[in-house]
Amino acid sequence: MPMLLNGADWATALVFVPLLAALACFLVPRAADWLGVLAALLILLATLGLVQDLLSDGPLRVAVGGWGAPLGIDLWADGLSAALLLMTALVGLGVSVYAPGYFAAHPQQQRWFWPLWLLLWTALNGLYLSADLFNLYVMLEVLGLSAAALTALSGSATGLNAAMRYLLVSLLGSAAYLLGVALLYHGYGTVDIALLGQRIEAGAVATTALLVMAAGLLLKTALLPFHFWLPPAHGSAPAPVSALLSALVIKASFYLLLRLWLDLFSGLGGLLAALLPELLGLLGAAAVLWGSVQALRQRRLKLLIAYSTVAQIGYLFLGFPLAGVQAEEVAWRAVLYLALAHGLAKAAMFLSAGNLLQFAGHDRIADLDRAVQRLPLTLTAFVLGGISIMGLPPSGGFVGKWLLLESAFTQGRWGFAIVVLLGGVLAAGYVFKVVGYAFTPTEIAQEGEAVPLRMQWSALLLAFGAILLGFSAPWLWPLLGVGDPFGLPIAEVGAAR
Amino acid sequence: MIPAIDAALPPNAWLPLLVLASSLLPGLVIFFLAEQRYWTRTLLNLAGSLVKLLLVGAMLWGVFHQQQYAASLPLLPGLDLVLRVRPLSLLFLSLSAGLWLLTTLYAIGYLEDSPNRSRFFGFFSLCVTATVGVAMAGNLLTFLIFFELLTLTTYPLVVHRGTEEARRAGQIYLAHTVIAGALLLAGTVWLYTLAGTLTFTTQGFVADLVERHRWSLIAIFVLLIIGVGVKAALVPLQSWLPRAMVAPAPVSALLHAVAVVKAGAFGIVLIVYDVFGVEVAAELGVTKPLALVAAFTILYGSVRALFQDNLKRRLAFSTVSQVSYIVLGVAIVGPLATVGGLVHLVHQGVMKITLFFCAGNLAETLGIHKVSEMNGVGRRMPWTMLAFSIGVFGMIGLPPVAGFISKWYLGLGGLEAGLHWPLFVLAGSSLLNAAYFLPILHRAWFCEPPEAWPEERDFGGNKETAWLLLLPPLVTAALSLLIGLFASMPFTPLEWARLIAEREFYQP
Amino acid sequence: MSLLPLAIDLVLALTLLWLAWRALNSPDLFRAVVLFIALGLVLGLVWVRLDAVDIALAEIALGAGVTGALLLAALAKLQPAASQTDELQTAELQTAELQTDQAAVMAPIALRLFIALLLLAFLAGLGFAVWQLWVPAPGLSNLVEARLDESGVAYPVTAVLLNFRGYDTLLELAVLLLALIGVWSLSTAPHLGDEEPEPALAALSRLLAPLMILVAAYLVWVGAYAPGGAFQAGSVLGAAGVLLRLSGWRLSLSATGWPLRLVLVLGVAVFAFIGLAVIGFDQPLLGYPPGWAKPAILAIELAATLSIGAILAALFIGGRP
Amino acid sequence: MSSVLVFALAGLGLIGLGLYGLLVQRHLLRKVLAFNVISSGIFLLLAGLARRAPGAEPDPVPQAMVLTGIVVAVAATALALAMMLALRSATGRTRLEDHGDED
């Protein structure tokens, strides 16, 4: 296969397989379950193909339609995109295997879940592969609309309320982003990231563009204090949707912010370029602490996991001050590890919560009623995911925190180091709060509904993924370096191929 | 006497990995066994522990003859997960492997017919896996990883009973160990950013940093010691230990004698000798405060034990006290004290597990949980109480039981280092030990038994209790006698501790 | 530079702002929507003044027309009198809501002031940035001009939409479809208009619908040379569908299943199919082989027009069949 | 050129008014209107500024972008309105509930 297909083909497949599968699922709902899983497998295959290609041939630039930037739209794949694509493929496959089990009880939801989720996947893959600011805007909109529609799928009052709020937030975020695109286009005559990276200069235009785009993307990423929409949305959506939202959707807007920062704005210098990372770091630190404390206070499992996401988002932003304008690579790699680990682990945790919900008919933490022996696989998945979230070894979360701490200690940023450690301790608090109650019986023993094995195993395998990520350095480390995403701007490396 | 190292031979990677696998794999399989598959589970348990014991034995022989055992797995660029078997590792390894076998036997008898045995034995095996991982850690990162795994795998054992009390105890246990883990992590990363390596080295790897980073090193030392000190139950970090007594008896035995507290004490040994190097640590001025903390802990634990009526709690406070003997030996700079501390790692394990086995037997057979219920129990359960008595004599430090050897070396070590106060601490502690243990023996052997025991179980015939419950304490009691009597034979803990001190810590 | 055009522009701009303000603050929702539609129409004029006839067409057809129709339809469903399915409880809740105290409608005054101040500061900053843009950067006009011949169409905007940046347009079609899937996931179509339509309306639609289909076809065809194209054409087609529906025309039950869905996905499917098929001819993704650009684009536009029309009409009806 | 300036300022004005409406108004229909006003303002900037270079044809690229943007806005509006109606029929409300956290 690698002989027949090149990197460009794999990249094409990553966008078009989910797109066409979405159409097919919409057309033939009866076949959606297996079409969806088939598409997920194909996407994973394409991702592996792309990763293989990147590792052997370096970063990839594809001119769609053959025009090339600035006239046409270019695709771009480097280590940063590949890592996120891979995480998306794994989580996507896990959720796709899980979903038929979950939605068996809700055929009406199942029917819309598939096309919406596959369109969401199209947007995620498209976003990670795009090198064009306006194309990224369109991807953001596909992402936002499909995510909001998925959130509303449960049809409950809380779900609809949360989805409506999410939709408005998402639209506002994309609008702000588009405003920044407008400014940049008129300032520098292109929307290609690499070309912009060469042309952009410090000044009011760049500053304003940075501010509005960052604001829009922060809103979508739910960094404190923009997190208000997240817990209700992630807490009330159907479990597989919560998993997608928490694991994947917020990563996409974070990725875009990171990409813009690395390739366009971090090199601009000036007061803003110095202050913004510090501000983001402070907000991130506040998010870690606030989100964790809120998670500890929750009585409902899904809300607890949702607040944990608020906290985990905070970690991602600690990379900005720690990397600084000198692009301290270790900090960015730490952030990437944390993002990947969070994706896998959080998906596992939400899917586990879905199992517990299906089993008991509720998700009150204090009434988990011996879930440990009644749903051992699910609880194992929850705990293994939790281990990575806490940053305990061996796990992807541990590697991420280790690198983040390393960066903080090297630079003497004690405050951030303390936040990282404290966040881990608080995370252990809320994860084991759940686990503790899973050992105790309730006064009146409850009968549970059966939970299909595919739901239990998909959660468990995702959690294993989060753990195994801790051992992935031998191949993930070189992959992250492909195209030097954390160093030079795209264009200078891109010229090589 | 000792053959030279054959540098041409690559280190053997299989044995360390097999040692891990011999408990990991059975553990994982056991999780999936149905509750009623008693014989399959037992077979797996016993096969695993026997194989582990054999492997450890083979490595003991090999290391004595200067064989190298090491395996590694890259985790991060420049940082590997390293297993390396050295004489020091073997001290802890053989203790774990030996006592695991006995505790498994005991647990099989103890948990007969109780629910969730597959889960119990699964975590039990994982816990041992983590312990041997700690023992074989070749660098601080590996140590940290297995140390945290130990926290995770012991938690389900602590809350095993699923009562509200057990859940609370579990939360407290976690609160202590997780915070400690965070500090350990902080210290480790910080050290790594300064030193650029974490590989355990004879006489430490920080000597070059002392001049430039004196205060950082002191801070790191404090972080690391607190990080492992919680598990070693150093005062004031000890409060989780007595509460964790809600766990089933085999767990208490394991927590107190082998896995958790010993991992903590072992960690202190590693930090002082292989991270800092005892001379560097002394030069930094951190060993003296550590010795004082240890001394205080010794006395504090003993005093608290005096006032406990609950037998297991009394034993728990006794553990708090006894583990710090090890720390004291480590913190007094000098070969003899080191030998005393190291040898106590093993001695205390063997003796304390005897006591816990016996306490479990009393609870399981007669429903006795309190000291005040033990009147005349020696007549009803003579063999159990015989074993208990030997353990007690060892704890007090009466010759020829093993405890005497430890105290002898610790005292001598203190004198060798020109210190007199350790002697007083040891003497005071022995008096206190006698004060809280001898009344128990008096009650058991010389008081009249009550008309009925709190909750007596019949094991058929005239048996005092199930043989699976009786055998392990008898074996460990015999062991504590033997390793005391024949302390200077080769391959005894004492001789091995001397070998470690000679080969690793005090090279000319 | 004469003053008259400038005066006209000023008046247009002020009208825009005034309409926006009124649309957002009018106490009556119906008036708000009507004012919003008016805003769309004035915007259309503004686009004409800016020589952007395509956008003007799209703004009037989509921004004012379709959006306005959607808003009015939603408003109709919100009105308590019109809603037949609503249960008593919700009706009560509504009346409670209609007795609006100020706080229920808007944020408290202090907060509003704060927001207003913040926004002014933001606008000042944004204005400054726009001012800095005054020196024109080289846009892409020349590049588009230079390669227009290769694109298969003679009109630059269409060339950009369907060739140079065709990837965007493909996804844009997907967005429309996505919105429809989302709408369908939320509710079933209401049984509105089961009563007899007004005879005048029915007669008018019979007359207008074929005409509109013709207009749509013309718009697609003309897009290759002049303002027009699939989206404008699609909205005209959609309007025809709406009109037919209002006049009582229904899809037969057998057609609301997969045949309807097939029409809905046709635009994306054909676009994606052609975009991928060219790879087999050694072309890059979405790169039409030389000489084939024109027919390819025409095929895509026809399929897209059909789908857009169907999707817009379905969005207007709201809810799955 | 100055008419471009006028419309650019009008675009800014629309953005500001729309943002104000989005943040201040509670009725969801008004929020949807406000979102559309914001979008219009941004489109005015995006395509309007393309006209600031004197003479010749306007730059077709931003025009195409605005066309795309308008379609996306229509799609978003349709979804938002449908969601609003669904919320109404589930809760009887046309506003967002602030304390959606519990239950």
Structural summary, described in words:
The complex is a heterotetramer of chains A (497), B (508), C (321) and D (103). Chain A is mainly alpha-helical and 497 residues long. Chain A has helices at residues 7-27, 32-57, 79-103, 107-129, 133-151, 157-188, 193-199, 204-221, 230-236, 239-265, 270-297, 301-323, 329-360, 371-374, 376-390, 396-410, 414-439, 453-468, 473-481, 490-494; strands at residues 60-63, 74-77. Chain A has a domain at 287-481. Chain A is built from 20 helices and two strands. In chain A, strands 1-2 form a two-stranded antiparallel ribbon. The two termini of chain A are 22 Å apart. Chain C has 321 residues and is mainly alpha-helical. Chain C folds into two domains: 1-105; 154-321, no CATH class. Chain C is globular and about 60 Å long. Chain C contains 13 helices and no strands. The longest helix of chain D has 32 residues, at 60-91. Chain D is built from three helices and no strands. Chain D has helices at residues 2-24, 28-48, 60-91. With 103 residues, chain D is mostly helical. Chain D has one domain (2-91): Helix Hairpins. In chain D, helix 1 runs antiparallel to helix 2 and helix 2 (28-48) runs antiparallel to helix 3 (60-91). Chains in contact: A-B, A-C, A-D, C-D. The interface between C and D is large, with 96 and 77 residues.
The biggest chain-chain interface is: C-D, 96 and 77 residues
Query: Can you summarize the main beta sheet of chain B?
Result: 2 strands, antiparallel
Order of secondary-structure elements of chain A: HHEEHHHHHHHHHHHHHHHHHH
Helix content of chain B: over 70%
Helix content percent band of chain A: over 70%
| Structure annotation, total helices of chain A | 20
Return Rg of chain B in Å: 22 Å
- Average predicted local confidence, pLDDT of chain B: 90
Choose one word for the global shape of chain A.
globular
Structural class by secondary-structure content of chain A: mainly alpha
Total beta strand runs of chain B: 2
Give the secondary structure arrangement, pairings included.
The complex is a heterotetramer of chains A (497), B (508), C (321) and D (103).
Chain A: H1 7-27, H2 32-57, E1 60-63, E2 74-77, H3 79-103, H4 107-129, H5 133-151, H6 157-188, H7 193-199, H8 204-221, H9 230-236, H10 239-265, H11 270-297, H12 301-323, H13 329-360, H14 371-374, H15 376-390, H16 396-410, H17 414-439, H18 453-468, H19 473-481, H20 490-494
Chain B: H1 14-31, H2 38-64, E1 69-76, E2 79-85, H3 87-110, H4 117-136, H5 140-158, H6 164-195, H7 214-229, H8 240-243, H9 249-258, H10 260-276, H11 278-284, H12 287-306, H13 311-331, H14 335-366, H15 377-380, H16 382-396, H17 402-416, H18 421-446, H19 467-485, H20 493-505
Helix pairs in contact in B: 1-2, 1-4, 2-3, 3-4, 3-9, 3-14, 3-19, 4-5, 5-6, 5-10, 6-7, 7-10, 9-10, 9-14, 10-11, 10-13, 12-13, 12-18, 13-14, 13-18, 14-16, 14-17, 14-19, 14-20, 16-18, 16-19, 17-18, 17-19
Chain D: H1 2-24, H2 28-48, H3 60-91
Helix pairs in contact in D: 1-2, 2-3
